[in-house]
Amino acid sequence: MIQIREAQIKDAGIILECIKGLAVHVDQLEMVTATEQDIRDSVFAPDTHVKVFVAENEEQKVCGFTLLFKSFSTFKAVANYHIEDLFVFPEYRKLGIGSLLMEHIKTFAQNKGAKVVDWYVNNRNLSAMDFYDRIGAKKLDYKSIYYFDV
User: Fold this and answer.
1) DSSP labels for 63-108?
2) What are phi and psi of 132, to 5 degrees?
3) Which candidate, 92, 105, 21, 9, places its Cα nearest to that of 57?
4) Higher pLDDT, 146 or 88
5) CA separation (Å) from 68 to 15, 112, 117, 124?
6) Which of 16, 44, 71, 142 could form a disulfide with 82 if both were Cys (CB 3.0 to 4.6 A apart)?
7) Among 132, 142, 146, 147, which one carries the catalytic annotation?
8) Which helix (H) or strand (E) holds 62?
9) Residues 6 or more apart from 46 whose CB is under 8 A from it?
10) Which residues are CB-contacts of 40 (< 8 A; sequence separation ≥ 6)?
11) Is 132 a catalytic residue?
12) Using CA atoms, how far apart are residues 85 and 19, in angstroms rounded to an integer?
């Protein structure tokens, strides 16, 4: 049985493993510069805007995670949530863990008054796109992502 729980500071190492696992999955490991200390200092800071949930099996082994943060819709004048990452270790895929994490996020966001949860998908991550299609997520086709390095 899988349980979803809010991550704690003691989970910093496994959160970093999840981040690196995702980076390997999309062939971008060289982009990961975060350390366990960075995770502790940012994700678990008193003023953090980040929420992390982990999926644990009956042996209390973390099987996957999701990281999200508040966003804001000016059109709806409401705080929403953005999923930065969702990852399930390969050996735990096809067990419904990703769906459980997504349902947990939806419930969490609804309980906080949000109207939308959104996320980006790496174009290389075809399995993620297939997964999101299967769970009924809507694809936004009218925006492009731009950014600055600062």
Assistant:
1) EEEEEEEEEEETTTTEEEEEEEEEEE-GGGTTSSHHHHHHHHHHHH
2) -65, -35
3) 92
4) 88
5) 13, 13, 9, 21
6) 71
7) 132
8) strand 62-73
9) none
10) 9, 12
11) yes
12) 8
Taking only the tens place, the pLDDT of each residue in 65-119 is 999 999 999 999 999 999 999 999 999 999 999 999 999 999 999 999 999 999 9
Full DSSP string of 6-56: E--GGGHHHHHHHHHHHHHHTT-GGG----HHHHHHHHTSTT--EEEEEEE
Tens of pLDDT, residues 2-53:
999 999 999 999 999 999 999 999 999 999 999 999 999 999 999 999 999 9
Contact in structure between 8 and 62 (CB atoms under 8 Å): no
Length of the chain: 150
